[in-house]
Amino acid sequence: MRNIYEYPSLFIKGTRNPPFCKVENECYHISMRESSEFGYAMIENSLEKVIDIDYSRVREDYCLEIPWLGKALKIARGTPLELTEISAMKVLLVKREGDYVSKGEIIAHTITVKDASRSIRAGSEGVIVFIGSRSLSNPEAYVVAVADSDIVEWFKRS
Amino acid sequence: MTSSNGSKDLEKIVWAYALKNALDYDGKAVTKSVISKVFKEKSELRSKAKDVVSIVSDIVDKVNRMTYEEQVKLFEQYKELVTPPERKEKELLPPLPNAVEGRVVTRFAPNPDFVIHLGNARPAILSHEYARKYKGRFILRFEDTDPRTKTPIKEVYDLIKEDLKWLDIRWDEEYIQSLRMEVFYEIAKELIKKNGAYVDTCELEESKKLIKEGIGCPTRENPVSWQLEHFEKMIEGYYGEGEAVLRVKTDLKHPDISVRDWVAFRIIDTGKHLHPLVGDKYVAWPTYNFAVSVDDHLMGITHILRGKEHTQNATKQMFLFNHMGWKYPTAIHFGRVHFEGFIMSKSKIRELISKEPNRFWGYEDPRFGTLRGLRRRGILPQAIKQLILEVGIKGTDTRITYTNLAAINRKILDEKAHRIMFVYEPQEYTIVTDVPLESKVPIHPSSEKTRVYTIKPRDKICINKSDSNSKVVRLLGLGNFMVEGDKLRYIGSDISIVKEHRVPIIQWVPCTQNVNVSVYRPSGLDLLVQKGYSELGILDYKVDDKLQFIRYGFVRVDQITDNEIKVVFAHE
Q1: Among residues B410, B425, B428, B427, which one has the least CA distance to residue B530?
Q2: Would B337-414 and B418-572 be classified into the same CATH topology?
Q3: Cα separation, A117 vs B103, whole angstroms
Q4: Interacting residues of B325 by C-beta distance below 8 A, sequence separation 6+
Q5: Chain B residues with CB inside 8 Å of A57's CB?
Q6: Which chain A residues contact residue B34 at CB under 8 A?
Q7: What is the H or E stretch that residue B527 is in?
């Protein structure tokens, strides 16, 4: 059973905040020493730092450590993304970062202000590389970013 | 396409978006991204998706075959199409219903039994903001008419005013309800004369039972003269606690039993429960709902902003307004905010302070969600205000965590907090150099002002133990050093090796000239203390200054003594 309180950790290229995420030889490791260009960033308010919502592209190279997979993914600046914006009174995400989705697969259920439920489906096939929430928005609003699985690089915890 | 003009317009837009996309991403536009942008801006084109896709891929192809310089040059022609119109500063608060500029009157009405915490800062900030937005009046009113269960505390009146001033809230008028008792008595008598209230002298349980049955105490039907006489007796102290109450007449069949004939006045034995301002002068005290209604009317309040837990109170108050022929203000009930990670419960904080006065620092303890606690922790009033305004007045419930507040605070502090080098697990090293070295560390990245330290050959410096594992380190402002046992050999100051060889840039302090620092880190109910040394530059600061300890986090200077400086950790 996965721990619902686990969140991915984000490391953005060029950020000089510890800890740092170093990726090499198919492995990654996290250290407090400035061992890499990927520095820690708070995922809660980094949506627009890493995702160009206007053009659906990755704005900066970043690594996302996904604790429940024991892996980190790395994605390069400029990578095109399929963005799904989900906004409703209540949003229940059924997919998480690192999950593979096929086109049309349900990624979230929502409840509208009129208490109607809706299913939100993926617009394309790929890997969920980021789920950003609009900080403190009300109703709830999320952006789910899916990238072509061939473009995403994976690293195991060393 | 519908017309050749339409087609040309579309092409222009696509050129603009494709060039912008290419310039933003090292000269390479992506068809999918440009299509997504086109549809985002021109959703009406979705029905012509096939044509759009074909035009976009054709133009993206052309753009990608151009050199970067050609792209820049051509983009000049299309720039206007993608430059967004100057955005107005985002209005965080929606317009108030029924608001007329110059006539909006709002109020903040705290009970002076506790200082302000994040929860009640919300109505204070929102009510004040709206009053200013509409160039109206903002009233501060102390609601202190319950000396028994919500006993007011004398010094808290002033503490609340200090808290509000700290939030940059200024009020136009100030009232204290316990000093307006005669007004409440007069209005109660008027209400009785209008047959809108009665004195209930039944036993409490009997009275509850009768109201539940939709009948009420038999005294309900007594004439007005009897009601006035017995209300006067209540005021004069003829009745003891629980022997009589004044009730507002409501619909006795109201589906919510608590609304039925609600209590407007009750007897409180102020001999036992002394009021801090008026002592035992009064025994008949108005309830919250009565006093609020009267004052909201008399003070001309036009808009009430409060949590939705007050919805039931509004229903009760409406009966009084109707009896008196008053107009009920516009009430906005916003959703509940769950503040996660803050200790905010009044009773819990009171208990902790009284039981363990040596462990907790009173209302100001940085572990508490009181404004004083947050201030002591280095949270800025602007951050609190911004957080509250972002949550706004929506009716839905929200969750706020310390991380949310810290994120806003960090953004504000980062631009102005001076940087200080602090080492908390010191490891001594001897500097090996032929000549004295001069370190220049800017007090802030945007400032030209630096702190200068001279390090002579064989001087000792301290760095964090965790930083000592590298072969080469760059000491901030001093230069690059080779780590050789307990020595640091100077090897130059070329910054490029930092990038090429990923040399860590670390903070340091001279071992002989430094300042003892204790960092107090709130962690739930614990306050962890981390001791270390900071550079001498910290002596330039005073209590309440906020600093950034490099590679550590933001702190607030809390206390300066001869031996050490005590700081409270705010956040990373």
Answers
A1: B425
A2: no
A3: 42
A4: none
A5: 21, 24-25, 30, 33
A6: 55
A7: strand B526-534
A55, B387: Cβ pair inside 8 Å? no
Closest CA to B244 of B253, B255, B235: B235
- For chain A, say whether B33 makes contact (Cβ under 8 Å): yes
Per-domain residue ranges of chain B: 4-82, 180-286, 337-414, 418-572
Within A9-92, residue ranges assigned H as helices are 47-50
pTM, two decimals, is 0.69
What tokens appear for B450 in the block?
Answer: 């630096």
Lowest mean per-residue pLDDT among A111-115, A144-148, B362-366, B415-419: A111-115
Say what the pLDDT of residue B4 is.
57
Task: Give the whole-angstrom CA distance, residue A12 versus residue A76.
Answer: 10
- State the DSSP code for B302: -
Percent of residues, chain A, with pLDDT higher than 70: 92
Residue of B nearest to A22 (CA): B502
Q: Is B336 on the interface with A (CB under 8 A)?
A: no
Residue of B399, B351, B533, B529 whose CA lies nearest to B460: B533
Residue range B337-414 in CATH 1.10.1160.10: yes
Distance of alpha carbon B215 from alpha carbon B535, whole angstroms = 77
Amino acid at B228: L
Let me know: does B176 contact B384? Beta carbons within 8 Å.
no
Q: What's the ipTM?
A: 0.81
For A35, which of B24, B390, B502 is closest by C-beta distance?
A: B502
The answer to whether B471 faces chain A, any CB pair under 8 Å, is no
* Dihedral over alpha carbons B529, B568, A135, A5 (to 10 degrees): 10
CB atoms within 10 A of CB A92: 13
Classify A9-157 by CATH class.
mainly beta
Contact A40, A7 (CB under 8 A): no
Structure tokens at B110: 């705290």
Most distant CA pair in chain A, distance:
51
Nearest to B229 by CA among B215, B216, B239: B239
Tell me, what DSSP letter sits at residue B158?
H
Judged by CB atoms closer than 8 Å, whether chains meet at A135 and B407 is answered as yes
Q: Which residue has the tokens 């939030």?
A: B167
Q: Which amino acid does the sequence have at A68?
A: W
Domain residue spans in chain A?
9-157
Listing DSSP states for B313-371 in one string gives HHHHHHHHHHHHTPPPPEEEEEPPEEEET-B--HHHHHHHHHH-TTTS-GGG-TTB-BH
- Which ranges of chain B have pLDDT less than 50? 1-2, 86-89
Superfamily of domain B180-286: Glutamyl-tRNA Synthetase; Domain 3 (3.90.800.10)
Token pair recorded at residue B438: 């001069």
Contact A101/A122 with Cβ under 8 angstroms? yes
Give Cβ neighbours of residue A13 (< 8 Å, ≥ 6 apart).
Answer: A37, A38, A60, A61, A62, A77
How many alpha carbons lie under 13 Å from residue B170 in its C-beta half-sphere?
A: 3
* Domain B418-572 CATH assignment equals 3.90.79.10: no
User: Residues with Cβ < 8 Å from B23, sequence gap 6 or more?
Assistant: B68, B71, B72, B75
The letter for the amino acid at B21 is N
Size of interface A-B (CB pairs under 8 A): 70
Output the pLDDT for position B105. Answer: 96
Minimum CA–CA partner of B82 in chain A:
A54
Whether a cis peptide bond, with omega within 30° of 0, leads into B255 is: no
CB-CB contact of B249 with B259 (8 Å):
no
